[in-house]
Amino acid sequence: MFVSILVPAHNEASNIAAVLRSLLAQETQHARIVEIVVVASGCTDDTAELARNVARGRPGMHVHVQERRGGKVAAINEYLRIKNPRADILVVCSADLRVAPDVVEKLVRCYEEHPGVGMVGARPIPDNLPTDTVGKMVQLLWEMHHRVATQHPKMGELVSVRANLIERVSELSVVDEASVEDIVRSQGYELAYAGDAVVQNHGPEKLGEYFEQRRRIARGHYWLDFAFGYQVATLDRALLLRTAYDIFREEDAFGKRALGAAIATEVVARVAGFVDARILGGKHRTWKQLRSTKTLRSMMPAANDAGHAAPFPSIPPAANLPRVDGPSK
């Protein structure tokens, strides 16, 4: 299957080269990466130039510059206009990730094995240190998302979709992955979660930024519910409570306190996000960057056979282009 990859980026000079190297290092058999497109939106740093440096001599890589920042959805829609028409699968990869070398292959295998699946998401694992409260909150949040997604797939950070299912995303949306979920489901296709396709991200290091991130996401999810009647998996309160309880039983005293803090923060963030969605709707689609989320560590966690994070070697230098959970019911 032919794969086209989008990397939307705004002021990602510290991350763009590394994420592109991790995408260039993908090891594929069933997937064939035909292009990697960077859409640099309203950048005031060296993001575009650094991306061009990586792309130099690689005809499959392109850097497209948007002079004005219009938000991630605007970058996605620009990409949909210029993407390679041969692509069977589209991958949207955030610019502040590191991607394990088998991710694209595992996503494509899921489509081959499940013809009714229209969208597949990878598993983000944060590299925040679990020794401080906010770092532990971030890790527990993503562990909860992982467990929820194994039951009811939820997309985030790196997602893929069948190319023929998507032509445009509403630019009123502030949660692009969830909006694409709605588009895919409305056409009769299912979602799937590749829990062993690991990408590394970095969550907020400050409580204020953690709250702001959760508030933004809550606003986007509630707006999508109000505007289109679509609810993401993490709006299922009963599922979240069961998952939180399971994690609570597994944690030590420090973990239990951090989980309590994460739950309390989430409740307040969802109330604020609900109000924002009612008052603001889809306005103000671009966000101020949360700076503490942009510093990834040199070692990447990967899922071992038991499903726990394990060290993954540093991403190798640039190279030539070269058990998935079933769909939800």
Would you kindly provide a written description of the structure presented here, covering whatever features stand out?
The structure is a single chain. The chain has 329 residues and is an alpha/beta fold. The chain has one domain: Spore Coat Polysaccharide Biosynthesis Protein SpsA, Chain A, CATH 3.90.550.10. The protein has nine helices and ten strands. It has helices at 16-24, 47-55, 72-82, 103-113, 133-151, 176-186, 207-228, 237-250, 253-280, and strands spanning 2-9, 32-41, 61-66, 89-93, 98-99, 117-126, 158-162, 190-201, 300-303, 309-312. The strands form two sheets. Strands 3-2-1-4-7-6-8-5 form an eight-stranded mixed beta sheet, with helices on both faces. Helix 1 runs parallel beside helix 2 and helix 5 (133-151) packs across helix 9.
Name the features.
alpha/beta, 8-stranded mixed beta sheet, two-stranded antiparallel ribbon, 41% helix, globular
